[in-house]
Amino acid sequence: MKYVCVVVLLVTLQLAFADENENERSCRSWLVQSIPTDMPHLHRVPGVLSSGDVLRWIAGNSSTKLDIIAQYWELLAQPHNPKSGDYGYSAPDLERFGAPLGNALFKSLNNAADRNVSTRIVQHSGVSPDYDEESARLAAGRHNVKNTTLLLGEWWGSGIVHAKVWISDEKDIYIGSANNDWKSLTQVKELGIYIVNCSTIAEKVGIYFDNLWALTSLNSSLYTKTVWDNEWQVRRKVPCWSHFIHYRQRCKSPLPSRVETPGVLGYPPLEYPHMLHVHLDTPGRKNRTRDYSSYLSFSPPELSFYRYQTDEQGWIDTIKSAHFKGTVRISTMDWLGQSQYMKQTVYWPTLSSAISEVVLSKHATVKILVAYWAHFINNTEQYLQSLLYTNVICSSSSDNRCSGKVDIKYYKVPGFNATGPASVKGNVYPGYTRVNHGKYAMSDVRAHIGTSNLVWDYFYTTAGISFGSYDPSIVAQLTHIFDADWDSPYAIPLQPPLNTI
């Protein structure tokens, strides 16, 4: 029955996209989710597509070109590999978990390669045990499929390719949190956006892809410097065109140029970052006369181009776009007010400061949903507790006249504490699953959908991309998705420290 539903969905989408008279003024977009099995009390938001269906649609309907940015690959389950989180689970278990959907997606990619679709894949080196083997299989013996591995640690000292992007025929795009892993389709909660028939946006995302591709052909030892980063107070490796290097000592970038700031170190916020003015039809909102601004943001900042904002600025501007007494909603897997992977720790108060600013100055309410799962970062709670202290400051003086507040909840997918190989007693789900993996935010007027966890490294040493929009229908639907999570029994309030009550 479920396969009949998939076929009906794909046929419906195909009919929707078949109008030959459509042009650039009719870009279309859908929000996309993966919802893990065994979450009966989570309200489903109408009009939201499934990650697995969308990615199969993209692979199955690419006719000339397909570009993919991936962190790693495990579309095919590995129940016989003792190094895999799938180890030990039976065929009926994997069927129940939804593993066949990954099989179907890999088959769709294989069929695209057989159709002679020109396919390029940029990926990280993979994760244990062998999570880049599948892309190698797609490329083996085919001149039309090229896959390359990019080690960002050779350019920034740490970091990985963490973006999850698909670009089809230079007009259809997926940007979101879903990895090329069967578990991301059925056992991990994911959030993304699917944009169709939109060459304007696809072209800009394609430039970012080309920047990553270009790095793989360059000798990093000839294009990097180790410098003192005065903004973050650490000594670290960066590309030689980085704005963290004095402008007289920078090399000429082999990538498209970005706004230059002589006399200024680092990447200060752009006052007028580039906005995309395209017409986006969204579910329930078609043929409107007004176009709303959208944008793209990128990390690390050295890979951004033209007047596009850094990904950090994209998140900050979304928070600060809150109306007076408005609401900001933020959902992330990881939250940390510092670096996670640097040898020398970087303190990073940027997002926390932006939140405190809108609470005190705009009396805004900020709701933050953070995943609590088997690999929860140990000192996350201390940073979240410090953010809750904003509420104490807000009410510390009658002169503040402050009615804003910060609310924080942990999101616990059922079974989060029973994941791993079946050979370990007590595990009932595969490893690295049962987690809210989406990274997105919205204010009253602006939506931001990204691929980066809210940790310093993801903005300064890791490849990530976000799409954002002021389109009210996107903002409204994303709000419904967040509220469904927030109001569910899976969201547990974080209690403030006892000495602040």
Automatic annotation (TrEMBL):
Domain PLD phosphodiesterase: 157-184
SUPFAM superfamilies named among the record's database cross-references: Phospholipase D/nuclease
Gene3D superfamilies reported in the protein's UniProt record: Endonuclease Chain A
Record's keyword terms, sorted: Signal
InterPro entries listed in its UniProt record: Diverse_PLD-related, PLD-like_dom, PLipase_D/transphosphatidylase
Record's signal peptide: 1-18
GO molecular function: catalytic activity
PANTHER family assigned to the protein according to its UniProt record, in alphabetical order: GM01519P-RELATED, PHOSPHOLIPASE D - RELATED
Name the UniProt record assigns to this protein: PLD phosphodiesterase domain-containing protein
Organism: Taxus chinensis (Chinese yew)
